[in-house]
Amino acid sequence: MSHKVVIPIGPYHPLQEEPEFFRLYVEGEKVVDIDIVIGYMHRGIEELSEHKHYDQVAFLVERICGICSTSHPFAYVNAVEDLGKIQVPERALYIRTIIAELERIHSHLLWLGLAGHFIGYNTVWMWAWRYREPVLDLFETISGNRNHYAMMKVGGVRRDIRDEDIPIIRKTLDELTSATEMFKGAVMDDPVIQWRLKGVGILTRQQALEWSAVGPTARASGINIDVRRDDPYGAYDRVKWNVIIQKEGDIFAKTVVRILELFESISIIRQCLDAMPKGPIDADVQEIPPGEGIGRVEAPRGECFHYVRSDGTNRPVRHKIRAPSYMNVATNKVAAPGGTISDAALTLAAVDPCYCCTERTAVIERPSEKKIMNGWDLIEKSRQKTKHFLITRGK
Amino acid sequence: MDVLFSYLVFPGFLFSASAGLFAGWIDRKLTARIQYRVGPPWYQNFVDILKLCYKETVVPYAGSRAAFLLSPIAGFLSMILVVSILGRAIQSPLESFAGDLIVVTYLLIIPALAVIIGASSSNNPFASIGASREMKLILGYELPFVLAMAVVVIKSHGALNLGAIINRQIAFGPHIASFSGALAFVVALLCIQAKLCLVPFDMSEAEQEIMAGALVEYSGFPLAVIKLTKALLLYALPVLLISLFWVNNLNLPSLIVKYFLILLAIILIKNTNPRLRIDQAMKFFWGPVSFLAVLSVVLALIGL
After folding, report:
1. B222-276 pLDDT, tens per residue?
2. pTM over 0.90
3. B207: chain A residues, CB-CB within 8 Å
4. What residue spans in chain A does CATH classification 1.10.645.10 cover?
5. How far is CA B61 from the centre of its chain?
6. What single string gives the DSSP state of each residue in A347-374?
7. Domain A45-356 of CATH type 1.10.645.10
8. Total number of domains constituting chain B
9. Do A29 and B126 touch (CB under 8 A)?
């Protein structure tokens, strides 16, 4: 049968929590090709950021993504500190590391739950999210917020971790360790899950290199890459931990990498709590000199990259963001074809896609004409709209 | 009048559908408790049906209207017939007619066929994939299911009559107590999991892959009918299993306890497994399950 049928996954589909569009070309149940269409969530963050001053941008980039809501500000402050050669107090580095690792834990547990949901195993879903809840409670204890913690600022952190909170963190970590042990047993040793996930959606090492996969997606394909070790920031060079690598490149390997990374994250937080010195939590930053800086952070999904250029004013003149999902979502082009529809649905989810991080430009398609709008078109369009308001509403 | 009563009220539609909806609530509530959720109140499934009856029915423009609307009704009516025959056989075993086991087996496939016809006539790509999966699944589970029933027939000395099978078990002990009967019971339990379209065999309605699959275009009253059919299935299949394998006496409490035990097994299987791929499900049914079924038939023939 060579009759190709298009199965649309998206723009709105139960598989995805955000609007994205994957066109699966199928023959029977077999997926032969896939088209990836992004652009349903474009918000123009980079342009917005050039209209805000340096302290506001930290809040803005936090809102790029609700899940890695500390990775983006972390990468941004790294970039600005690189640009201004700002010395960050030791305690602030440790606090940043603790927050980033807690975020990795809650993000990986979120993915584990979603992965369970996607293979129809709703018990895993609910249990993973149950154990994710105490982590969110920890964030609320530390910062007052469950998801947008607003901890990062240029030169340090906005809030201290109080001494009385440290036993609570330790206790939650202990509970998490046993919960993670349970998940390790329940997910990694389950024969039916192995049957379902092994050998599915394979991304070979070569393909991962060619498509520039990052983070757990790359590490599951045997690529030894981790910004935390390769280009240390925060307090990662002051603690001992391992980079988790799996060779197979299938969905099961991606699951294993994420589960084992949970243990590493817990260990990093414990070491940070032990080693955290007393002292100030932020440096007094007066001025950002002209120049450019880059900041890299290993977000839960991979390398998150921010570039900031300054002309000496209080606003960045250019702010470039590259989120990890931008690289990882593209690998579906090679990982998904060849499997069945059931496998493709899992493969799409296995890179832990975060679409609102990924968006670049809005694409408007009409049957008659095809118009692709770039950033400048969008700005022009929004200016026209503003002018329209000024005219119709009489200034 | 008596026939109409037993078809529509007891043990037919009204009683069985209520029991099935209530069993559906137990499933939802237990699942919720296993997953640290609160779960719905006991009347949730009933008001769901009621709500669906009030909702607008959308019929796909491109599909065949008659087939789309009539096939759920066909499945529904055949299920009512099944529960009436089953209920009458348990009520008064001596009255059941010869060959009703064959009729029940035949009628039990019709809901699945109805889903396939309805889905195919809706002209939706998700629905047609769901229909093709359902079709493959029927090919998978029907052979071991019939073999498991053959074990019962062999052990009842060729009786194709539900009443005779029940009476024989009351006289000589339930079939599940024998080795071959227990094996066949396990096989049948796995098959009804697939017939009920529950995890790990719910690939024809896989929400995350093909939305609701075969049911994606249904709404309003036809969807209510399909939900009622599923409720009837959830009532009828465990009851069929009990009457074929597991009758000690016809005391109501012991029947209810057995029903709940089977329901519990179904719920536990559902909550401790991921969904299989359709080819894996086929391998599973044609491989180990069919092997077990054949083995139990052989064991039954040599009298174990």
Report:
1. 999 999 999 999 999 999 999 998 888 888 898 899 999 999 999 999 888 888 8
2. no
3. 14, 120
4. 45-356
5. 31
6. HHHHT---HHHH----EEE-SS-EEE--
7. yes
8. 1
9. no
